[in-house]
Write a structure and sequence with these properties.
Radius of gyration: 37 Å
Order of helices and strands: HHHEEHEEEHHHHEHHEEHEEEHEE
Low-confidence stretches: 443-453
Helix content: 40-55%
Mean pLDDT: 80
């Protein structure tokens, strides 16, 4: 009996199709699993970002019990895709706000309320919990680091319905594309799959690492495929560029942060602390005074004859005088003292850590005040521009009226102490200017206010 013969094409087809079918099935299963895992991971990551955003925006609302604020934050989060319900609880377990379908949230367990960030996986989706932490802002470099406080917990229920649909869509697409392209790419896939898999996986790992922020990642895999080799070079170049751009961006962020701090706490003209930072320093000085029993002094300084100079030569010359006065003030003070500008030609000086004895503290404050008055009374040369645009120098003598308020161990509030010094300064103005007047609370006043001319 003669055996039936088959052509070489059929043998090659059979020998190719069977391994390719097995390889296609394995690869399809592998990549589908990776895609499904990535899809679930994306859902989890997005849910975590959403609940973290809710927690970050809820600390003020919980701390101030502002339910309207929390409701607005919850409504904003609820507009995100797949988010079915959100709630914010305080540490007593009270739901301050509930947005969406509360059935998705279920019962709130003590573990969700008092534990760390958690994810509860259910049949319908994910329930994510994120503690709400508030940290006081550190405004002074010498201040101890504030301790974060937990004020509540934010919960978000995320549905996996769209994820399931995406998985089914991916499955259908992969199966259909595999069936269509398998016959076309049998030989190509068989011959080159081993040469492509490892470089592609290395590239995938590198891209994941770069996406996770590890911008120093580089791909170094040998490949004779031109496109893969070019892709590796592109990924490495992209990582290098991103690394450089992040360094530049971080530098800009640092510079912008410093500029914002200067705008918020310092006078832009004289670079002295403004009213806000002065109140911070004054609060610290009062706290230190309560602990040590040492006196502090606040000086309110107003430049005499400043407005005529401004009116005669313009604001530019007046600004030069203010800068000169600020530099003169700083030269008269210690490192622990503070010179600030409130506005216009009004300056404030805060003297800390004076003597525990009122008489000695008064004498110390008067010595510094007299030094300031003497330095500010010295003539200064100011550069002005004439109509011919040729610079000229004028000599101007600007005296100062100074009011002093002594305080210790919580005598008064910062506003009251500032008012005391302001009143004393106006008495110096009324008495003829270029004078020093002292104001003290009646219970501390054992002598008449000192006058220095």
């Amino acid at each position: 009996m003669m055996r039936r013969l088959y052509g070489i094409r059929l043998h090659v087809a059979l020998l190719t199709v069977i391994p390719l079918l097995l390889i296609a099935t394995v690869l399809e299963t592998y990549f589908l699993r990776e895609w499904f895992v990535e899809t679930d991971r994306n859902l989890l990551t997005r849910g975590q970002l959403i609940v973290r955003q809710l927690a970050a925006s809820s600390d003020y609302g919980i701390f101030s019990n502002n339910r309207a604020f929390l409701a607005a934050a919850g409504s904003s989060v609820l507009r995100e895709a797949d988010v079915k319900a959100v709630t914010v609880l305080n540490m007593a377990g009270e739901r301050l706000v509930v947005a969406g379908d509360a059935d998705w949230l279920g019962a709130i367990t003590p573990q969700l309320l008092h534990g760390g960030p958690q994810v509860v996986v259910g049949a319908r989706g994910l329930l994510l919990a994120q503690p709400v932490i508030t940290t006081p802002v550190l405004l002074d470099d010498g201040e101890a680091a504030p301790v974060p406080q937990r004020v509540g917990v934010a919960l978000s229920a995320v549905s996996n319905e769209s994820t399931r649909r995406e998985k089914m869509y991916l499955l259908g697409r992969v199966v259909s594309y595999t069936a269509t392209l398998l016959l076309i790419a049998l030989v190509v896939i068989y011959r080159f799959s081993r040469h492509l898999t490892e470089p592609i996986r290395a590239l995938s790992r590198a891209v994941d690492a770069i996406g996770a922020g590890q911008l120093d990642t580089r791909v170094d895999v040998v490949s004779h495929v031109h496109e893969v080799h070019g892709l590796m070079g592109g990924v490495n170049h992209m990582a290098q560029q991103l690394q450089q751009e992040r360094a530049v961006l971080q530098q800009r962020i640092d510079e912008a942060t410093q500029q914002l701090r200067e705008l918020a706490f310092y006078d832009p003209l004289t670079k002295l602390p403004n009213r806000r930072l002065l109140y911070e320093h004054l609060g610290h000085a009062m706290a230190a005074s309560r602990r040590s029993g040492r006196h502090c002094a606040l000086m309110f300084i107003d430049l005499d004859n400043f407005k005529p100079l401004n009116d005669l030569h313009g604001h530019d010359v007046g600004d030069m005088l203010l800068v000169q006065a600020a530099n003169d003030l700083k030269s008269c003070l210690r490192g622990v003292d503070t010179a600030a500008r409130l506005g216009g030609d009004e300056f404030v000086v805060l003297l800390c850590d004076l003597s525990q004895q009122l008489a000695d503290a008064t004498e110390q404050a008067l010595q510094v005040a007299e030094k300031i008055r003497s330095v500010l009374s010295e003539p200064c040369c100011l550069l002005i521009r004439q109509e011919s645009d040729e610079p000229a120098t004028i000599e101007h003598q600007c005296t100062a009226s100074i009011g002093i308020a002594l305080f210790v161990d919580g005598d008064a509030s910062p506003d009251e102490v500032l008012q005391w010094a302001d009143s004393a300064m106006y008495r110096a103005k009324a008495s003829g200017r270029n004078l020093i007047r002292i104001h003290r609370p009646e219970r501390l006043a054992d002598t008449e206010p000192a006058d220095i001319t």
